[in-house]
Design a protein that fits this description.
273 residues; globular; two-stranded antiparallel ribbon; single chain; alpha+beta; 9 strands
């Protein structure tokens, strides 16, 4: 028996026992090679690829835990410091594990190029709360404490500078999204919003063990937000139905607003301690 999993706005996925089935694409063989490399390297906080089923769908191991799914506002764990810190540490450990990955010949990816260029790794590029799987382990001191089981939805995996991957995680987890979007996700606004964003950004960068400056990350976040907006509009213009829907819903515009707000907030985000 198959059970539809919540979320998955583009194609969705179903659970069958301890496996997940979802539609495959040109990128799927390369993603499966990546996931297998991670497990051989001892990095087990990601699904494992199990091949394809009789319908041609990819088969992955199911990661047990809580997900954001279709909840909005997001659940408390997705907005807490514990998950933010865990996400930063996960991303750094993933980048360390993937540096030794050699893609198979002819690998196709979900980005704008397929070859791994100097200084690049194959990143996840969507390691956001809505793709996180969380196991709560609450304590009296921290009711939102828990363990990050891993991230799902690897179809956007592609070669890029690791900073591009980190930038999207900052955009999603701090969050550095447009204020109205962050409010709808459950994050507080008000006069302290920039100070709170600065605090959470530093938590994320410390967990990632970022050794550069904050301004460099903020510039990368702005670029990433604008690229995402432009990419959605281009895909919609090409007739890609999920992108048409997202652009119609105002998602591309929201990424542009996030970039504009970030430009205005950047001096305070860098200066606030």
């Amino acid at each position: 028996m198959e059970e539809r999993l919540p979320g998955g706005r583009n194609d969705g996925a179903v659970r069958a026992g301890d496996t997940v089935r979802r539609r495959a694409g040109d990128h799927t063989p390369a993603v499966h090679a990546l996931l297998e490399h991670l497990h051989r390297s001892g990095f087990h906080r990601a699904p494992r690829a199990l091949g394809f089923d009789e319908q041609g769908r990819e088969v992955l191991t199911f990661l047990p835990g809580l997900t954001v799914g279709e909840q909005r506002p997001w659940p408390a764990w997705a907005r807490g410091d514990a998950a933010l810190v865990a996400a930063g540490a996960w991303l750094r450990d993933f980048h360390d594990a993937v540096r030794s990955f050699v893609p198979p010949p002819g690998a196709r990816w979900g980005g704008d190029h397929d070859e791994v260029r100097p200084g690049e790794v194959v990143g996840h590029h969507d390691a956001a709360p809505y793709n996180a799987v969380w196991r709560p382990l609450p304590t009296a001191a921290d009711p939102d404490a828990g363990e990050l089981v891993g991230f799902v939805d690897w179809e956007l995996a592609a070669p890029a500078d690791p900073l591009r991957d980190l930038a999207f995680s900052a955009l999603a987890w701090v969050p550095l999204s447009a204020r109205d979007v962050a409010a709808a996700d459950g994050f507080p606004g008000g006069p302290r919003v920039v100070a709170e964003r600065a605090r959470r950004l530093r938590l994320l960068l410390e967990a990632y063990r970022w050794d550069g400056d904050v301004a460099t990350v903020l510039a990368a976040v702005e670029r990433r937000a604008r690229e995402h907006a432009d990419g959605l509009r281009a895909a919609a213009a090409d007739g890609y139905v999920p992108a048409v829907r997202l652009v119609t819903e105002g998602v591309a515009d929201a990424f542009d607003r996030a970039a504009d707000e970030l430009v205005a907030d950047a001096p305070l985000l860098v200066a606030t301690r």
